[in-house]
Amino acid sequence: MSKARTGKLAMSAVVVAGIGYAAGILTAPKSGKQARRDLQKAAVKAKKEAEAKLKLLHSDLANLITQGKRQAKTTSTKAKAGLDDALKSALAAKDKARQLLSAVHEGEADNKDLQKAINEVKKATLHLKSFIKKDTKNVKTKPKK
User: Fold this and answer.
1) Residue 10 lies inside a defined structural domain of this protein
2) Half-sphere exposure of residue 80, counting CA atoms within 13 Å on the CB side?
3) Any idea what the Cα angle at residue 6 is, between residues 14 and 25, rounded to 5°?
4) Is the separation of the CB atoms in 112 and 47 below 8 Å?
5) 69-112 pLDDT, tens per residue?
6) How far apart are CA 68 and CA 125, in angstroms?
7) Alpha helix (H) ranges present in 28-110?
C-alpha cells in the first residue's frame, strides 16, 4: 500500500470513529449521572418491595403459628410431633425475619439477605400450611346435637 492510501485510510477511520462517538452521545437516552441515579432508585425500590413482602410473609407466618399451636392441643400424639417440628421451624424463620427487618431499618441488610429470608419464611409457611392441612383432615369432629 502506498503512504497516501494508508494515510487516507487512517484519516477515514478517525473520521468514522468521531462520527460514531458523536452519534452515540447525541442519541444516548440519559447521561451517566442520570443512569446511575435511576439505577440507585431502582435498587431502593426493590429493597422496599422485598421488605414489604417479608413483612407480609412474617405476619402470615405469625397467624399460621397461632393456628398451629391451637391445633397442636387437639391432635394425636403421632401427629403432634410432626406439627411441633413444623412449628419450631416456623418460629425460627419468624424470628430470623424479625431480626432482618430490624437490620433493614438500621441499614445493615441488603437485598440478598432479604431474599434469603423471604425464601426461608415461604418454605416454613408452606411446610406449616401443608401440615395443618393434613392434620385438619385427620381431626375428627364431634357431630352436633
Assistant:
1) no
2) 9
3) 10
4) no
5) 888 888 777 777 788 888 898 999 888 888 888 888 787 877 77
6) 11
7) 32-72, 77-105
Considering the entire predicted model, what is its pTM? Answer: 0.63
- What are the grid coordinates assigned to 97, written together? 425475619
Amino acid code (one letter) for 137: K
Helix, strand and coil content of the chain, in percent to the nearest 5, comes to 85, 0, 15
Residue type, 92: A
Three cell numbers written together for 117: 429470608
Q: Per-residue pLDDT tens for 124-145?
A: 888 888 877 665 555 444 444 4
- Examine residue 143 and state whether it is found in any structural domain, yes or no: no
Show the CA angle centred on residue 129, arms to residues 118 and 64, nearest 5°. Answer: 75
Domain that holds residue 102: 44-138
CATH number at residue 113: 1.20.5
